[in-house]
Amino acid sequence: MKYILVTGGVISGIGKGIIASSIGTILKSCGLRVTAIKIDPYINIDAGTFSPYEHGEVFVLNDGGEVDLDLGNYERFLDINLYKDNNITTGKIYQHVINKERHGDYLGKTVQVVPHITDAVQEWVMNQAKVPVDDDRREPQICVIELGGTIGDIEGMPFVEAFRQFQFKAKRENFCNIHVSLVPQPNATGEQKTKPTQNSVRALRGLGLSPDLIVCRSAKPIEMAVKEKISMFCHVEPEQVIFIHDVSSTYRVPILLEEQGIIKYFKQRLDLPIDDQPSDLLMRWKKMADRYDRLLKVCSIALVGKYTKLSDCYASVFKALEHSALAINHKLDLMYIDSTELEHSTEVENSVKYHQAWQKLCKADGILVPGGFGIRGTEGKLQAISWARTKKKPFLGVCLGMQLAVVEFARNCLNWKDANSTEFDPDTKNPVVIDMPEHNPGDMGGTMRLGKRRTVFKAQNSVLRKLYGDEMFVEERHRHRYEVNPELTHCFEEKGLKFVGHDTEGNRMEIIELENHPYFVGVQFHPEFSSRPMKPSPPYLGLLLAATGTLNAYLQRGCKLSPSDSYSDLSDDSSPEKGFSNSEMS
User: Annotated catalytic residue: which of 258, 476, 510, 528?
Assistant: First the structure.
């Protein structure tokens, strides 16, 4: 097993996750089996109880793990399925050690950070690195480990010490450290500054880790003189200094790394049995990046939510929309709309925001209401859903978005004016959305319906069934505490709102579709978590197709893209005339 540790310096949020994902993509393109581990130094057991403004979205894995959004990057880039134990937190490690201490495993010894905590980190990494993450179920050969936070943070010290010890246990030819640092460029002088990187590398060395590669992040391409200066003061060869400047899309990052000779370096440094040149996979990735930069046609989607101030709050939703837009040869124009601003207010400032928000909504080609929790902004979401339904605008509701679509239909089509979810009004006379029997309100962490579950299609002519390739069932990831009340579904179906997908027992409503509408779909699951750059999520693809007016033509062709919109330039074994089906786009 080869281990690649990715650390970060100067500031957090510098892009370590994208760098780690890109390195994994490059090595996978060389024919190696790659897995990934993310270490978060916070004390929380998992990311499930975070506000999205704290760490971005909560990403959900097949096994129900609620984890950091970087694991979403790993899965999308590498096309693998990770597990909750691929996300290590300080809370998990301390809980593991304390449980062993209570069980008597350390009887007679004083339990300390060194060696007990550091040993637990090393054992966890070595055990999880062996777990298969590809469909072929073979053991990985490379494990990319990202250490969250910044070198020097007090929270991360036990993990840094663990890897200082681990580099000797694994042996030099099996362990490599990549340090990602910032090269700022103050507007006052326009000069690229290397001192922050020098200080960060010095701090890393002082803790016992010496970087093999220094990846420098910057706004603009870095000059050769800066590279030579970093090489000299950070005690590495010039070819060990890699530059990644801001680019048009994250699809470019693996290409930039490969162009700077990273494959040759890894081959020599880790003694890897690979060729110097990547396989067709990275060439397809390059073609996809080129395709992204050439897009001219634009499709605008209004995302109506309540966490719109930080794009990372809806990272997977944005990526799923981007994957679908790229598949149909369109550039995505995603307009974030704070749902509270769609609710009318008499205050002057809010009144201006109200009109601006509605102006965005009205000009959008499609409307998306994603998942969420809490009552704030729900009335605005209901207004957006009503607009989409009555004005025949393509609409996709995910999780809470689907539940609110049911509430809106009950209020305005069934005339149940007080219809609501028991999440927002426990005493409503028409509880069209109810809490699940197994929901435990006494404990917030990990008590939802989480992970991959099967949805069985009940209708033959369902739009979503066709988009999924006319399968009898699909398996998607869930994260919810509330569900549509199954006792009232017949009232909706009589008026044209069809529940076309159920769980395997037929008790839980998973998919809704509205008759006589271009595309009005709601799903209880989160399909964005399984979307991949070359295999877009069918519900999101359907939204983009409907928003561009091409959904009917796509369905009539048997769910194949037209020659002008296909991925034909990304694969050597498909002709432009043939186009691509959903299964072929992977």
Answer: 528
